[in-house]
Sequence to fold (169 residues):
Amino acid sequence: MATITFVQGDITRQHVDAVVNAANSSLLGGGGVDGAIHRAGGPAILNACRDLRASHYGKGLPTGKAVPTTAGNLPARWVIHTVGPRFTHEEDRSDLLASCYRESLKAADELGARTVAFPAISTGVYGWPLDDGARIAVETVRATETSVEEVRFVLFDERAYEAFASQMP
Ligand code: AR6
Fold:
């Protein structure tokens, strides 16, 4: 099992092997952490995403899946793009959110990444309640077999940091 750490900060500044992006299925960028990663990483990431769309994901990357690209100018080697579910009261999409963490760790294993930084997937634009998103994130990572040595949750503000850090027993 990976060692889990928590930091408050900007995921684009993390010196890790792979940074996970809370993307959307178009893979063409957006706001929030997605916008920050593309801005800081430069056009190489978008070019790689366009290639992926052309070769594999013409209909978009499905929710809960994950796919890696170069990290461009970021201090990381790779960006792993995953698509979180939008929160809704009508349907329980928890397993799709858990799948983002599982599939990202699987992609990290395939890359040989030893250190991986995750944002709080789905808890921004996609509206997932922060405490529940934190619980799913930490429980899923703790339950996933992986060769990754450190999973670092990078939380943008103090509220998110507290929500995540308080999930550890
Ligand atoms: N570093 C770490 N965390 C960040 C950063 C950053 N630089 N910037 C924002 N966050 P969101 P989602 C936090 O909205 O809910 C995009 O438009 C933020 O405070 O980025 O999965 C995509 O293209 C929040 O806690 O992702 C999709 O359309 C967390 O990252 C959609 O948003 C996730 O917020 C995805 O929505």
